[in-house]
From TrEMBL:
Origin: domain of life: Bacteria
Any one GO biological process: methylation
A molecular function GO annotation: methyltransferase activity
Designated name of the protein: Class I SAM-dependent methyltransferase
Record has Transferase as a keyword: yes
Statement: the UniProt record of this protein carries the keyword S-adenosyl-L-methionine: no
SUPFAM superfamilies with a match to the protein in the record: S-adenosyl-L-methionine-dependent methyltransferases
Assigned keywords, A-Z: Methyltransferase, Transferase
Organism this protein belongs to: Candidatus Fermentithermobacillus carboniphilus
């Protein structure tokens, strides 16, 4: 099977771990932002621990999984990168909560293996922006909508770009031609290991940010409606809550 462009994230996780970093996602400012946003979202959605089921497509290393399970939610995380999923399982094991965690190694753009209308809430923490081709984004959002109950809410944390390109992207090659991303340069980034700042060198990966209007249009075209939107200060991102439109 042809390797998907978004599988480059697995290669990047491996690069990070080879440099001695335990968890790539443990950046204090991002975790603080993510957890504050998560609590705001759960409050907004009227989420009830022990009753509402939460899905996280692209769960990565599991810091939101840990937070949701600690808050008493029935949680399922889907992740395509084996290295990241191993770290998510380790995180829950270290917290003594692995018995409460459920993870599946799978491409989160295709949730057809899950029953329809089986989740009350979903959280997408920087997964949608990893998908740069229109059909992949549409497939994912359609698949996500199918497994959510009518009126369910989703929290999206994504990259944000004012005046982002609004035209079609029909192939990965077209994405390369339009956005001209530098995917060959190895860049220095900051990571944290045991609370200590370390410098690592990793390759860049594909991503496709949008602005408020772009995300709003994309949500509407795929059966969602944005009910809250904010630009984040800690990184060039945005957070928005979207509801499944009832037919």
């Amino acid at each position: 099977m042809e390797k998907k462009y978004y599988q480059a994230y697995e290669d990047r996780y491996k690069d990070v771990y080879r440099q001695g970093v335990k968890y790539w996602s443990d950046l204090p400012w991002e975790i603080h932002e993510d957890l504050d946003g998560l609590d705001s979202f759960l409050d907004f959605a009227g989420a009830r621990p022990g009753i509402h089921r939460v899905l996280e497509p692209g769960c990565g290393e599991g810091h939101l999984a840990l937070a949701l399970i600690q808050r008493g939610f029935d949680y399922l995380g889907i992740e395509l990168a084996p290295s990241a999923l191993e770290k998510a399982q380790l995180r829950l094991k270290e917290a003594g909560l692995m018995d409460h965690a459920r993870f599946i190694l799978h491409d989160a753009t295709d949730l057809s293996f899950l029953p329809a209308a089986s989740f009350d809430l979903a959280v997408d923490n920087k997964f949608l922006h990893m998908l740069v081709v229109d059909r992949d984004r549409q497939k994912y959002l359609s698949s996500l909508r199918r497994v959510l109950k009518p009126g369910a809410y989703v929290m999206f944390n994504e990259l944000y770009l004012d005046g982002a390109y609004t035209g079609p992207v029909e192939s990965f090659q077209q994405y390369l031609n339009i956005f001209k991303p530098d995917l060959t340069t190895i860049e220095e980034r900051t990571a944290y290991n045991g609370g200590k700042e370390v410098k690592i060198r990793i390759p860049r990966v594909p991503a496709r940010p949008k602005d408020h209007a772009g995300y709003a249009r994309e949500m509407e075209e795929n059966g969602f409606r944005i009910v809250h939107f904010q630009i984040l200060k800690s990184y060039t991102g945005c957070r928005f809550f979207a509801s499944v439109v009832r037919h």
